[in-house]
Amino acid sequence: MKIFCYGVLSVEEPYAQAWGKANHVEVGTTSSELSADNAELAKGYNGVSSKGITPVTEGAYATFEKFGIKQLAIRQVGVDNQDLVAASKHGITLTNVASYSPRAIAEMGVTQAMYLLRHIGVYQERMAAGNFAWDGSTISTEIFNCTVGLIGAGHIGGATAQIYSALGAKVLTYDPFYDAALEPYTTYTDLETILKEADIISLHTPLLPSTKNIIDAAALKKMKANAILINMARGELIDTQALIDALKAKEIAGAGLDTLANEVGFFRLKKPYAETPKDFQELNAMSNVVITPHVAFFTKLAVKNGLEIALNDAKTIITGGRSRHAVN
């Protein structure tokens, strides 16, 4: 058996080869993301895996079908960059990794929230100018005196609820699907209540037509002036220009963003700062905003689990089995 992996990072390579050796499977790799242009690299292989960060067009699935490949294992949670209809049309079963390390992403969200809650960016900006004074504008609040609102309570949202609850915060959650296991850590409520009452709002929902721009100008105006917005999910959940306007107008206090709506064009790349999107530059210049390049998942455990779970799914489907992670 042979499986080809696209978008493999150098830190993933050892795990890929170790899995291949343990499972008696030849694992081929490339650092290039999957596209219709390089789908031919999988010729001669029985299955494929991809990081799933860049959009994939129908041509890639058609090429896999020509090679007799019947699955594509995505090594992340989101599959919004895949064309599920086109994949099904060409007999390709797509799988994702629904839970590789929820704690990794949850911890990054909490880290960014604490950074903003304690005004660290503001202090850094002042000190860079030789100003070591502090005043009432940067007085903070302990986390146990905060109300945290979670939009989305899947694996990552649930892990986030547990961390904030352990820190003593009051945690509210909005999710159309109730999970009784989270009762010790959160109280379920509606979106309106979260927008109006939460000091920290953290996004953990998939990108769907119903969730795109769930945080728009109207939602931002309902939030408290001291509210901090955290996005560990998908950039398109937030109307970026509306967020910029709200921050400038001091309608909310800050934002922590591990993902942006237009990130595909420059995240994970090296390019002159002047060539990055203007909205990124505008946000990045704000001392009450912290941006990371979609790296909340990037821990040793998450990388190992993501790759191994994806390859296990690929092997299962190749050998005629069914994966519980199938998304189409």
Structure write-up:
With 328 residues, this protein is an alpha/beta fold. It has helices spanning 13-23, 58-66, 84-89, 102-117, 120-128, 155-166, 191-197, 217-222, 240-248, 278-284, 300-318, and strands spanning 2-5, 26-29, 47-50, 71-74, 93-95, 147-151, 170-174, 187-188, 200-203, 228-231, 254-257, 289-291. The strands form 2 sheets. Strands 8-7-6-9-10-11-12 form a 7-stranded parallel beta sheet, with helices on both faces. The chain has a 5-stranded parallel beta sheet with strand order 2-1-3-4-5. Helix 4 (102-117) crosses helix 6 (155-166). The radius of gyration is 21 Å and the shape is globular. The two termini are 24 Å apart. InterPro entries: D-isomer_2_OHA_DH_cat_dom, D-isomer_DH_CS, D-isomer_DH_NAD-bd, D-LDH-like, NAD(P)-bd_dom_sf.
Tally the helices: what do you get?
11
Give the overall average pLDDT: 95
Question: How far apart lie the N and C ends?
Answer: 24 Å
Tell me the Rg in angstroms: 21 Å
Q: So what's the overall shape?
A: globular
| Biggest sheet details | 7 strands, parallel
Number of strands: 12
Order of helices and strands: EHEEHEHEHHEHEEHEHEHEHEH
Strand proportion: 5-15%
Q: What's the arrangement of strands in the largest beta sheet?
A: 8-7-6-9-10-11-12
Low-confidence segments, given as residue ranges, are none
Fold blueprint:
Blueprint: E1 2-5, H1 13-23, E2 26-29, E3 47-50, H2 58-66, E4 71-74, H3 84-89, E5 93-95, H4 102-117, H5 120-128, E6 147-151, H6 155-166, E7 170-174, E8 187-188, H7 191-197, E9 200-203, H8 217-222, E10 228-231, H9 240-248, E11 254-257, H10 278-284, E12 289-291, H11 300-318
Parallel strand pairs: 1-2, 1-3, 3-4, 4-5, 6-7, 6-9, 7-8, 9-10, 10-11, 11-12
Helix pairs in contact: 4-6
